[in-house]
Amino acid sequence: MEKYQDILKKADSLTSVVSNLRSEIERAVQHSDGVSALELESDALSQENFRKRVTKRYIQREVLAPLAPYLKEPDRIPLRFDSNAAAVAYVRALTHEHKAWLIAQGMIRPNSRLKEDDAAEILMKSRLAMTAYVDRRGVSQGLLIYDYDRRIYSNDTRLIEICLTDILGVVKKQSLSAILATLEANAHNFAVYNPPKPWQLPVANGVLNLLTLSLDVDTPLLTVMSRVSTPYDPNVREPTFNNGMTFEKLIDNFAGHDPRRVKLVMQVMKSALIGHAPVPTFVQIIGPGGDGKSTLMNLLTNIIGSENVSPATVSDLGTDDGLRSLDGMHLNIGMDNGESFIRPKTSEVLKKVTAGEFLLVARKYLNAAVIVFRGVIIQVSNKPFRFADNTAATYRRVITIEATNNYYDNGTVDRNIESMVANEQWHKYILKYLIENVPFFTDFEDVDREVLVNTLDADDPIGSFCAELAEEGVLSALPAMHVRLAYAAYSDWHTKNANGGMMHSSRSFTTQFVESMKQYGYKLKPGRRCRIKNVEAIVKVSFEDAFGIFANGDVFRSVYDSNSVGSVIERASSVKIDRIMNNTRRGKRESRWCDAYQYFKLSASIDADVSNDYIAYFDIIEEMLARDEYSIITIDTRIIEEAYQQTQPLSMYLDDNEDEMVLIQDRFRQKAPTLQYLYDSDDVPQAENSEPSLFDDAVEDEIHGLRLDELKERLNTLNNESSNIEIACVLSESDSRLGIDTSDYDTDTRIVRLKLEFDK
Q1: What's the number of domains the chain is made of?
Q2: What's the predicted TM-score (pTM) here?
Q3: Helix (H, G, I), strand (E, B), or coil: what is residue 507?
Q4: Residues 398, 298: one domain?
Q5: What is the DSSP letter of 557?
Q6: Considering only CA atoms, which of 550, 571, 235, 291 is closest in space to residue 417?
Q7: Angle made by CA atoms 623, 624, 628, in degrees to the nearest 5
Q8: pLDDT tens per residue across span 583-641
Q9: What is the CATH number of the domain that holds 274?
Q10: Whole-angstrom distance, CA of residue 647 vs CA of residue 65
Q11: For residue 412, what are the CA distances in angstroms to 243, 251, 405, 440, 570?
């Protein structure tokens, strides 16, 4: 794909050619009536001009595309009512009409009650706003019912129950369950499941487009499951308080006047407000008390609305009741965390919740409910949380805010702060401030990461030992390691650093060491046991030199001199330690300000569209200029207009004539040589079936040298016969080229996700 710079050079070149012809054209015009000179200004060809047009089109496409089924099935469009009462009144009228028809047909007596089937039929004819959760596979995962009073969807069945009371008179639980099951089975006839895009923020007075800061009117066509209770007002001003408090001053005080912590708090508040974070996020706010944690969380809750904030604590999230409290919520704030230890089951739940995955939750007397929480998890505690799961997937998610400013100790307690927190004008201003004044960002400014590192190190000394091996360059120097010698180094290290803690046995160490080293690309070779000196000869590196400061202890010296036999762990040649250091517990998070398109991962799609537009546009102009029938005399603005009109169908994503659309797209693919390789590449390397040797870098070098189209094809050819190293190299290189990180997922899921990203 051509880069912007190359495309702009092409545009400038064309502009220059046209400019040189201007005088000749003008002279020709004097002898040719009705032909205007070509007006082709450089600013009309600028990147920004095209980007604005394509961005507008992209937003329109993303908003309109999910609504396409309504064009073919207009009966699916849900009716709009001003309130639940109006919806019930409409269903009541339908009920009378349905019953009157049955009586007229002699199918029931006037005093007869309607049956469950009648009730289900009436509700389906009512066109009440209902839809169903649809997972990533397109499979329905539960019924959602629209609340016309709150203008949100949920699995709350009260509106249906009220309607059924009018229809049936008495509603038994069994009847309710059966009717709901019928409605869910027919959900494909109801409203399209169309959740807001990450850049669409439902607020009290509409849906705020975070890309354009424009307000759109929301309807049941948008599957809104939570709504910020504060309206967006671009003209609101911050209220003046007697104590001189401002929002910026409040955050500065809470952050202990540390600019980096101020930045982090602002980032967390913005992510919490818009219900979306740039990375899977679990925020822990820790402090002994009297430090403003409750004040800040109460303020955030008031802005978003308490009805949109789940109060579930960490321990609650390990239960079905706690998970149900997340359903349809915008934010989770757990305040009363008496237990700081996060158990394995809860850790697994947290990983799924923070990744936005669907969760199956049991319900009494009803089928299990499927919920999904797309907001931010914030948990407040006096002490740092301890994690039973110390894997990379855990510590990559944890963001720590340490509240260091104790207002009681400082004598700075403000008794008026609670009334300020309840001020609605302040809510409007803070919402506007966070939206307009806090830039978007690629990651969090994790200024208090050391708190997490120390906690993990204390709970996992072997993991801490492995981290120090990596930091000291031991792992970079050793593609293979003798486990017994590693245990010897650990024994010496433990004596110096563990402060009298329990020493792991050799067997216990081996189990945990092998598990911890997986994050660095090492794995145990089953059945492979070698003497220390033999392994040393294979890697062609002195263990004494490679272990460095870890080789100075008495135990290490003794085991090394004994040349004993033990297990070996090996690192795939494709894995480079320096590439994965940032994904370890002590890795440094890199936080940069960015635009909204980068934050919501839209840049790649929009950039591709811009490039396609440029290529198609200029290919057409160049073709026209090359035609014999277009002489210099006949060149005028109509050529440019014709070229523009010919590229327009590419912008019409809901074109009525789909066949014509396909033909147009194919034609432009053929005309754009730079795009050709994306569609038909026959020169595809075949997958290797044999595992390369430990130090053979050939596979990594080969894959690193592939073109993007070749890499895509290589991904498509991966199968059960592909070597582990080949798979690891292809997945890692694809992540790098596409600018994403899929390492949290299993291999099959990674391949599927990467294929989808390539298709974009």
Answers
A1: 5
A2: 0.70
A3: helix
A4: yes
A5: H
A6: 291
A7: 100
A8: 676 777 788 899 898 899 888 787 777 777 766 666 666 665 565 544 443 444 455 55
A9: 3.40.50.300
A10: 20
A11: 12, 14, 10, 32, 57
